[in-house]
Design goal:
Structural class of chain A: alpha+beta
Strand content of chain A: 5-15%
Oligomer: homodimer
Radius of gyration of chain A: 24 Å
Number of helices of chain A: 19
Helix content of chain A: 55-70%
Number of strands of chain A: 11
Distance between the termini of chain A: 44 Å
């Protein structure tokens, strides 16, 4: 049976010793988030993840969701009770606006917890995560009345939310969508069409489900410029917030899928359902992207979360399973064999995962801080700066974290040999669950294109310059510290590769856009590596400071330094091959006729 | 619904135009294998794979195998009929010895077909593959009487075979095994113990199942030096070959696993079952490794086979699914969107897979030729040379092919976006099925250790020198041809990385064996890349010769050149990072205390 232990000490190290939060102490949310309170919340949330959510993870996988003939969907045994505990604990409302019943804490704190919930039970956590995405859209573009009507019950978890984009013939290219919205005399719309792959589309956890649906009005352009966003509740809502009639929509089928069986992925049929325009007409994509950007960061955290829990279980196994002898001579001479953690190739997989997990956690929290600052920083310049940074890094966090999440879950599974392949040990579920994160909320290929085609050139490359300056500053600060040299040297080489690849794209992608597309995924991974290298440099610096000051657990900080050096010596050098791939361009890649495949 | 088309033209290109078979034309097996006969066999076998095996692939996945209370195991609907057709077609006996009813064709021809059968239905193909492994062991170490009794019905497929190594507490470290073999007065043994993860352990396809079981005799050393191999038939066999009593063994449970649901993976209980020593007592591991080495090559082919079929389906989808517009401007101006194959990142995944598949097919067939030559070449020197080469490359073919098989199946799945994640399209099955190949027959970590710790240093590095000389010869031949320069340049750089990594290991691994273990997987991948680069150089040379001679389909050869250049520009440069990882050594990798994980 798999287990999970929330890495609270690691999250707190990043929050308290790596991120420099002092300048923000007086900002809304941050002023309430004292270190003691945050530590207590993470400890409590970690316990909830470990004790309530994790034991249901395999249950969700083996039972899945059941749809009855009338379209009702039942979640796996225990999910309802856990959802009730989740809402009663207020876990979904931590970073919500106080005006709507939220606790007003920084997004930063909620993100730290989100990782734990995802590690413990990704399929379960998708229910509240989708709700938060829907709230973000309503808050961003909804009228005050819509916000007042829908957000408080959603924030409490009494109602949940969904995103309805994909249709059978279109996902990435929303210009092709066919769902129609016909205006009615009362100002509402009749929504008709079929949506597929709708996560949390129908279930028995919440009283009501608020679907956010993309559709086209009859006289709108038949392109992405003619798409509007609608609130389409499962139960209509009276003006006083009480539930009204059942709306004309339903789950037509549950998708049979590779993983995340605990989440109900639905085909949703809208048969003239009543919907309400949210935001401007024909500007639905803008609202959708607000929801999507938040969701993309959350999906990135899924990559981290699955990598973390899979690694923990692989490490537990590797410490206990005895098989063979260490190459350097018996380590467990009294026994007939050594624990497999003595074998360097097993170590390699565990260290690869660990170096990613800890680095990704730091980058994820750094990103969450930017999300907060983009909203509450003191000056418009600071808000813009944070928004630039998180805009640039969002596709990297989504794409790189989920590619590595899957790869690392696979590594962790490998540590168990044949036992990793059978269901019992739970490892193969982590792999199957992690796989979806590379696909949804925009495939990783779309993330790479968003990065290279949109985020890099935006505002003349302002965001990239800002971020590179942060890294240069960190390198300059660290250069006085010889103990950091293995890390600074490696990061400088990585940065050199990033500069080289960026300049190559500037010279070669404008005249031939396929060169941008051809190198986009390599560029995304190159940037992910440099971003983690940057975070590792910051963490190593913080660890040295603590060691020099002789505060805290010296072993914890020593391990940080070892893992930082491992990242620098074994993982970061991969930047060179990504640069080579960018610079190889599109020619050989695009040369074959399509018919030749 | 997934489809499959056997790549017959590609196999024949390699057999007829890339491998230089002329010097072997008079050898046993080769003399019968005229190009026309081979072409006919591949066409017929390809058709069998496409029309009989492939349509059962999803059936096997969704139905799995069923075990009834009395321990009987039923395979998925259609498997029995397909197995009958398989045996009637003589598909399992192609390379079998004529003395035992085989057709005596080269292993080379059987390997080409094996790929097709695996692509079409990997779980099904495991039944006959395991039988061939068991035959190899009996032929290698069994007495003439044992061979005569067991091999003919196994070769015909009337009986099938299994390998029983793993026990609950041991897989890799067989010295720990507990299954006992007690000598009986009649010269037989009573076998008692539990084996797990036994592929094809019990099923309804064949009349009898011949289990090869590793066990310890009471007075043998309690280590790998005390393991013997036994033939333990499901039904005892009378001296005249007729079936006797049911033996005291059975399937205790079916494993629930991530994939290959169509194959019955069994817990096997031996309750004082009658067994017969095969080969020398206490030398069971030697016999097992004969079986294992053949099986490892077959597992490598599984990596290729799953990559191939997944790629075909991804390419079909990418040519048909319209979504978005090409970066270089609309390609399908009449439609509302372009087929996604216009997008460079989709292309990248397809080209990565294609460049692997075609290169791996060439290396696999080159390897199969060595297997043949090791047995039938004219002189002892030639046989030794072939044996050296295939011994060296076996862990590479197993490890590199299966790592890439899984990675490429994942890439192919990615091309379908959300449709890749649902069962219907069959892509996620390819990923789940491909995953096991990295684990069984020795995990890929074990392959890497076998390569670096055993195969490299064996006989003073003779095998590596032989193989490097082959590559140098190919490079020297090609250097006169400027059109091959992009490939030769890249291969020379790869070879330089291989030399560098090898020398680093020679200098640093003897004094500190952990350095060998730490870099072993990187070294295996480095060697895999160079091996494929070598094959691509040979294929590109053959393609140029055909183009210059204006024979055959010019498009086919042009595509080979394009794909060769793509391999050289986009994939082969990865050697540098593997070299860097080898040279990074074990220090940072092994520094953490085990308890810190």
């Amino acid at each position: 049976m798999p287990t999970y232990k929330a890495p609270v000490a690691d999250s707190l190290f990043i929050l308290n010793e790596v991120l420099n939060l002092a300048p923000y102490a007086e900002l809304p949310g941050f002023s309430e988030a004292s270190p003691d309170l945050v530590a207590a919340i993470l400890a409590e949330g970690g316990k909830f993840a470990e004790e309530v959510l994790q034991p249901l993870n395999q249950v969700g996988d083996s039972h899945g969701c059941q749809r009855s003939a009338d379209g009702k969907v039942t979640t796996a045994p225990g999910f309802r009770e856990a959802y009730t505990q989740f809402t009663e604990g207020g876990w979904g409302a931590l970073a919500g606006k106080p005006a709507f019943g939220g606790q007003g804490l920084p997004h930063l704190v909620a993100s730290a917890l989100e990782e734990y919930f995802i590690s413990a039970n990704m399929a379960f956590t998708m229910y509240p995560m989708l709700t938060l995405g829907a709230i973000a859209a309503i808050e961003a573009v909804g009228t005050p009345a819509q916000q007042q009507l829908f957000v408080p019950p959603m924030l409490s978890g009494r109602w949940s939310g969904t995103m309805n984009l994909t249709e059978p013939h279109c996902g990435t290219d929303l210009g092709l969508l066919r769902t129609r919205a016909e205006p009615q005399a009362d100002g509402s719309y009749r929504i008709t069409g079929t949506k597929i792959f709708i996560s949390s589309g129908e279930h028995d956890l919440s009283e009501n489900i608020i679907h956010l649906v993309l559709a086209k009005m009859p006289d709108s352009p038949d392109s992405v410029k003619g798409i509007s966003l609608f609130i389409v509740p499962k139960f209509l809502v009276n003006p006083d917030g009480t539930p009204g009639a059942r709306n004309a929509l339903g789950c037509g089928a549950l998708e049979k899928k590779m993983g995340i069986h605990g989440n109900a992925t639905c085909v949703m049929n809208y048969d003239g359902a009543t919907g309400y325009l949210v935001g401007e007409r024909d500007k639905g994509l803008r609202a959708m992207f607000i929801m999507m950007n938040a969701a993309r960061l959350g999906v990135g955290v899924q990559g981290l979360g699955q990598s973390e829990v899979a690694t923990q279980n692989a490490a537990n196994y590797a410490r206990e399973r005895v098989q063979g002898r260490a190459l350097s001579g018996p380590q467990n001479a009294a026994g007939k064999a050594d624990p497999i953690i003595v074998h360097p190739d097993v170590r390699r997989m565990l260290m690869n995962n660990r170096a990613f997990n800890e680095g990704a956690r730091a980058l994820m929290l750094w990103g969450a801080l930017q999300v907060d600052l983009a909203q509450v920083a003191a000056t418009p310049e600071e808000r813009q700066r944070a928004d630039d940074l998180i805009g640039l890094l969002t596709p990297v966090i989504k794409g790189y974290f989920t590619d590595l999440g899957y790869q690392n879950a696979t590594n962790a599974q490998q540590c168990l040999g044949g036992h990793g392949y059978v269901r019992e040990w739970g490892m193969e579920q982590f792999v199957r669950d992690a796989r979806i994160a590379m696909i949804y909320e925009g495939t990783n290929g779309i993330q790479a294109l968003d990065l290279v085609g949109r985020k890099l050139p935006m505002n003349g490359g302002r965001a990239l310059r800002l971020w590179l300056t942060e890294i240069e500053t960190a390198l300059n600060t660290a250069s006085a510290e010889p103990r950091l040299q293995p890390i600074t040297d490696s990061l400088r080489r990585g940065l050199g590769d990033l500069h080289g690849a960026t300049q190559w794209l500037m010279r070669n992608a404008l005249t031939k856009p396929d060169n941008a597309g051809a190198g986009s995924m390599a560029y995304l991974h190159l940037m992910g590596l440099v971003a983690l290298g940057h975070q590792w440099l910051l963490m190593a610096g913080a660890a040295l400071r603590a060691l020099d000051a002789q505060t805290g657990d010296a072993g914890f900080y020593q391990n940080k330094l070892i893992t930082a050096r491992y990242f620098a010596s074994h993982l970061l050098p991969e930047t060179s091959v990504h640069r080579a791939r960018v610079e190889a361009g599109a020619e050989n890649l695009m040369a074959l006729e399509a018919a030749a495949f």
